[in-house]
Amino acid sequence: MSGRCSPTKALALLGPDFSPMAAADEMTQAIQTNSSFRLWCDGVLIKPHIAAIAKVVPKLEPDGRWISDIESTGPGLGWARGLPWELEIDEVMALRPQPDTRAEAMQTAATAAMAAAEAARAEAATTRAELEQARAVLQAASEQMEKAEARAAEARAEAMASRTTTKPDPELEPRRRPGPKFKDDWPMLVAAETIRLARDEPEMLENVGALVAHMHKFLEEEIGWMADNAKEIRDKVRILLSRR
Hints:
The chain is of the alpha+beta class. The protein has helices at 7-13, 20-33, 48-51, 89-93, 102-165, 186-200, 208-223, 230-242, and strands at 4-5, 39-41, 44-45, 54-60, 66-72, 85-88. Helix 6 crosses helix 8.
């Protein structure tokens, strides 16, 4: 809505939100103190120092209608009644109470916060589940390592006992790495080495090819297994990594 209207029309425009007297007070204050609230008379814009003494005066007619006029509050005889005063409709409408969007904004923010909290709870639950799974895998690997170490200790004891009772001729037997060779326990050793790498060198677990090569060398050093067992090692490594 744009254009101009009379003070009486302006009074009606503010009627849904103000009583006639309150509407007149609102317009009077705007005319006197707000230079952007313009007052016109006979098509001429009233200057601010004149508008500062203008007052909107409401009047109740005998038929029950409210009308309003502009009067002077300054010294002198005042202004004639019934002059063609006009106000900007948009500026009059701007005096009406504006919708309070703060409550809506707060509700939107609260909804967003609740959604974020729910997402965080879901993520935390997923993380806890993954952590529990990782703990279970590590526990199983630790148990396998303990069994492998126990077997190795038993085998070392048997080997030491054997060396004390039998002294083979060194010229008849090829030179070997000291210690027993337990090829059947290589999965346990791989699991134990995987745990050590996860703790000390986690970056090794990111490259399966390099990890398989490392395990092959590791087994050669630990149990002297020189057979081409890369595929078996790769399969075991993949099983362990899938449980991370």
